[in-house]
Each structure stands twice: as structure tokens, then as C-alpha cells.
Amino acid sequence: MQPWQPLLDWWFGPETAAAEVAAARHGLWFGKRDSQDREARERFAPLVEQALAGQLPSWQTEAEGWLGHILLLDQLPRMIFRDTPRAFAGDARAQVLVQQGLAQGWERQLAPIQQVFVYLVLEHAEDLALQDQAVARFEQLLAQADAGERELFAGFLDYAEQHQRVIARFARFPHRNLILGRESTDEELQFLQQPGSRF
Fold first, then answer.
1. Which SUPFAM superfamilies match (predicted)?
2. Half-sphere exposure of 6 (CA within 13 A, CB side)
3. How far is the C-alpha of 42 from the C-alpha of 12, rounded, in Å?
4. At what angle do helices 91-103 and 63-74 cross, to 10 degrees?
5. Please, which residues have CB within 8 angstroms of residue 147's CB and are 6 or more apart in sequence?
6. The predicted structure's pLDDT at residue 199
7. Which of 67, 80, 194, 195 is the most buried (most CB within 10 A)?
8. Which DSSP state fits 194?
């Protein structure tokens, strides 16, 4: 078994159809539960630390290892280090990793639902060019989706567009300011009073 397989099994489960995977794993992916954060920490914290330290080059030799490496840098820190600056510690490295893999076409070897977590790295970036790239990639996923899964991928695209609009307006995510010790502007504070402003 490849070293990244337990992580991919945990993250995506045994289902294969995108809608089934998303239905079964949505709570893990986008829920905020102490039990899930604890499980992520207990099972994968050492790997996350290795990824953050740049110690997993062997994971960058094929598409699924690339995906696992991305999860360790982008998704797992947001669980393991939730509400601390380290939640975003892997973002810059993940962005580089994503661009390297996209240049090699590795995303084409992944299922569409797996590709979502490649493009979420771009969606998490406080960089408008990367946000634009994220929206374009999610548009492609929607265009290629089967009729029964168009609603799912339309939702991912809508969320990407929401992130893009925030970065276009503020050049950063205001909801991260408190965690990262950044001072919010009056406009950002007003924005944060709106529903849905904190993702």
C-alpha cells in the first residue's frame, strides 16, 4: 500500500460516484466537529508536520500521492490547527505544489470529486490570479459533469465565485484577520457582520 492511501481512503471513503462521495463525506470536509479534528490529529498529525517541513518528496511522484500531499498541506492543517495561525501554514507550499502538478497534467488522472480538493487550494489563496484560476477550473468541472451531478459541481463553482469576489474586493479574507493578528478595516468589519462572510 502506498503511504498516502490511508489518507485518501479516510477523506474520500469507499464510494466512487461523485454525488455519493460528497453525500457521505460532506460533514468531514466542511463540518467543524471536535471529534473529526481530533481524529485528523491522532491519525495524520505526524504526516502533516512532515509535509509542512517539506519532507515528503516521495509523495510528488504520481497523481494520487500529489493529491494526498495537497490534503496534508491545505485541508488537514485547517482541522488539526483550527482557529490558529498554523491552520494556514501549508497554504503557500500547497499553491506551489498544485501549480507543479497542473503543469504535468496530474489532475487528469484524478476523479472530478478528487480534483475539487486540488482547486480548493487556489480558492483558499489570497491572490486574485489564483482565485480566477480556481473559478475557471470549477467551470470546467461543471461543464464536464454528468446531468445527475451538475448541481453538486454548480455548488462548488458558486462557492469559488464567492471567494473570488471577496479577494477582488479586499485582496484578503477578512475572517482570517483576527486569527492572523491583522487589523481589520472598517469596511471589513462591516462585511464580517453579513451572513456567509466567514465561510
1. TPR-like
2. 5
3. 18
4. 160
5. none
6. 76
7. 67
8. S
CB 108 within 8 A of CB 137: no
The three grid cell numbers given for residue 44, joined into one nine-digit string = 495524520
- The pLDDT score that the predictor gives to residue 1 is 85
Return the DSSP state at 185.
Answer: P
Residue 47 grid cell: 504526516
Nearest alpha-carbon partner for 48 in 60, 40, 37, 38: 40
Q: What is the pLDDT of residue 16?
A: 84
Within-domain flag for 196: no
Residue 78 confidence (pLDDT): 97
Interior angle at CA 127, CA 122 and CA 130, nearest 5: 35
Q: How many domains does the chain have?
A: 1
The reply to whether 199 falls in a domain is no
CATH number for the domain that contains residue 31? 1.25.40.10
Asked whether residue 104 is assigned to any structural domain, the reply reads: yes
d(CA 37, CA 77) in angstroms, rounded, equals 9
Inter-residue long-range contacts of 19-25, CB under 8 Å, 24+ positions, other chains counted: 19/148, 19/149, 19/152, 21/113, 22/113, 22/152
Tell me which residue range forms the domain holding 52. Answer: 5-191
Query: Which residues in the chain come in under a pLDDT of 50?
Result: none
Choose among 101, 155, 149, 98: nearest CA to 124. 98
